[in-house]
Specification:
Blueprint: H1 2-9, H2 12-38, H3 40-46, H4 49-63, H5 65-81, H6 86-110, H7 112-115, H8 117-144, H9 146-150, H10 187-215, H11 220-225, E1 271-275, E2 281-283, H12 285-288, E3 294-301, E4 307-317, H13 318-325, E5 333-338, E6 344-348, H14 349-352, E7 358-363, E8 366-367, E9 377-379, E10 392-398
Parallel strand pairs: 1-10
Antiparallel strand pairs: 1-2, 3-4, 4-7, 5-6, 5-10, 7-8, 7-9
Length: 423
Amino acid sequence: MKKGLERLRRGYGKKLVSIHMWNAWLVLFLALSGLLLLGGFWRELLGEGRVWLKWAHIYFGLVLLIPVVYYLLLAAKHWRRLKGKTSQKANVIFVLVLLVGWIVSGIVLWQFRLTGPRASNAALFVHDLLTWVGLPVIIYHSITRTKWLKEPQKRSITSEKNVTGETLKGVNGNSTPPSRPQPVYSRRGFIKIAVGAGIAVTLGPTFVRWMGRAFQLPSTEEYAANNANSLLPDPVPQPQSAPPIGGGAEGSFRVYTVTDIPSFDNSNWSFTIDGLVDKKLSWNWEQFVALQREVQVSDFHCVTGWSVYKNTWEGIPLSKLMDMAGVQNQAATVKLYSGDGVYTDSLTIAQARMEDVMVAVMHDGKPISNQLGGPVRLVTPQMYAYKSVKWLNRIELIQEEHVGYWEQRGYDTDAWLPGANKV
């Protein structure tokens, strides 16, 4: 073991440079792919390619383990060479914290079904925070250290002149010439300051906005206040909804869509149940809000890792709407349509009849805003939220299976949460 480490550490200067390079390329890919996966615009443009990009992001993140572990095997020798160089030590620690934090939080997000929603929530926050803090620093570091990579005599792993003026040998046996006096304010120093200022100006505001959203995302009250739907009359909440028996939602919704967020009014909204039913049903808004509603408290989990707990939903159980229409024997699938005209998903008859699957009209005693999928959305508490179709306006009973929008792009057909009562 000891001899193996000694062989590994031979020529470690070149190896450290190689590790530095591979880290840079891997982090660059992970940064770009992560931003593409996050952006709503790219979700629709990439289509099925987004799923492949997601898996590439995961695999490259795992590959990042290799240079990190490789460096840790060389770290003891490198650390000795950094004696007395506080700033370089701090830089190494900072980069290691970033890389290890990204890897660990990324693995938790990757294995969200095993770790559970609370761990995924924390991991998503850490992953985002490290990205917005670390990327500007890494970009700045990479740009300003390019010359450093090309000039070995400037690195801490090469020789330095001792106090007697003699030249010490570098790790590769080459001598280093005496250094010349450097100006207080060099051209390289100016470039570093300029690059740093440029990054601060371009990425700083984005980081500040992200921090604001991360620590204080819009509340349901704010979403309700900015609701672009204009449907009258407003639904009157039941006593269990106002105040909400769940005590108010814990957490904040992140708004993801595959299209622009639609809005509705009385002239362009209706709700239909058709297909393999005994009686096709259709309601306008006034008729729909007059239907008898129920109240439930449930958690809401997104497949990307975040959750909102203790939501008080008010609406009509999907099973009761199906009973009103009368489901024919040959019907096997409940196809769900979004009012955006693009998104669809489906449940089996048995899944649709679970008692907590609800066609919701209110959240925490207020109408569901268009940003959160209102005026009407599906709620499937035992499944991930891509099954909880937003802007729901049509339910069709069909005989064949239906593959939903995200299932066509690689997501599981059954979006069960860990520990769900599967049917």
